Amino acid sequence: MTTQPESPATDVIFAVDGLTEFFKHPTTSDMTVGAFAKEAASVAGAEDITDVFLEDAEDPLPPADLLTPHLASRFAPLQLAKRGKIEVTVEYQGQSRHRPFSPSVTLLTVIAWAISPAAFNLEGTSSDFQLKIDSGDPLSSDLHLGQVAKGARAVTFSLVFKQKPQG
Amino acid sequence: MDIDEQALQRDLAGLPFSIGERRGKWALLGCRFPYVLFFIAAAPRNGGPPGFLLRSECTGYRAAAPTSQLWHGGADQALPQANRPKKAAGVITAFQDWASPCLYHPIDRLARPHWPNQYADMAWSPDKEITFLLETVYGLVQSAEYVGADLPEAALAMPASFMAVHPPRAA
Known about the structure:
The complex is a heterodimer.
Chain A: E1 10-16, E2 19-27, H1 33-44, E3 51-53, E4 78-81, E5 86-92, E6 95-101, H2 107-115, E7 129-132, H3 145-148, E8 154-161
Parallel strand pairs in A: 1-4, 5-8
Antiparallel strand pairs in A: 1-2, 3-4, 5-6, 7-8
Chain B: H1 3-12, H2 15-22, E1 26-32, E2 35-41, E3 51-57, E4 67-72, E5 77-78, H3 130-140, H4 160-163
Antiparallel strand pairs in B: 1-2, 2-3, 3-4, 4-5
């Protein structure tokens, strides 16, 4: 009787709705998206996880697909998420704008929308701005929306211009 | 290995640092504690460099903030002001020469006392890790304010003080 050699494992880095830390879990070439989601959610201690997104993707990966072919040549953490979009409100100088986003978009993507003509139409680039929640510290723009929404399906940010300390 | 070096090594091996490396934002070039050397990627500018070397001194990490300077690898000394990241008029403030040899920014251990009651969210605290420093410097050379630099190729060479510990790998 012959046995199939085990597929070599590759570590996949991922984030989970409601948690700002990142995790890693091995995948093999024969592992489906759904199987990875179940194992990885268990590693992170997360509940109600139904979807796996590529970073900045609008729609989750099909659960029956093999995961490995979806892993892009350009590195980015996956997002394990609960079902549904997240309604984002961004406040700036007393005004607010709203839009739904998928949980896997980076805060940099949210900023790019917020300063665009579709929202506040501001001068400068995304790297000149930051997002905050309530009176907290500015958030890293590499974080995924699902990580900072604390498991909720709506979040409100304040858009702030990055300060430049002078002498 | 003392606890500050252990803490730094743990953070350099952690996922946040690895994610930044894999995104191409920075790279660890060497560690000769308390000194650690990084490459920080800069935004592409016409005639500008791919990035800069940053040498950080990490005594007392994480309780104490690192203190850092942009570094000229070939000369193995602080990067001359003429080669530092520029804004429209002169060198970006955080990289200007100041009273102490450090970053002129609230994140730096030596510069922080210059703004004692301001910029708390930019300053180091013991719950931060090395990626907070790297994100700060990366943000400065990725900002719209950064217009480029006159950086010679030799400035990105591996410094002699790190070569002894980290010789180049054979091809």
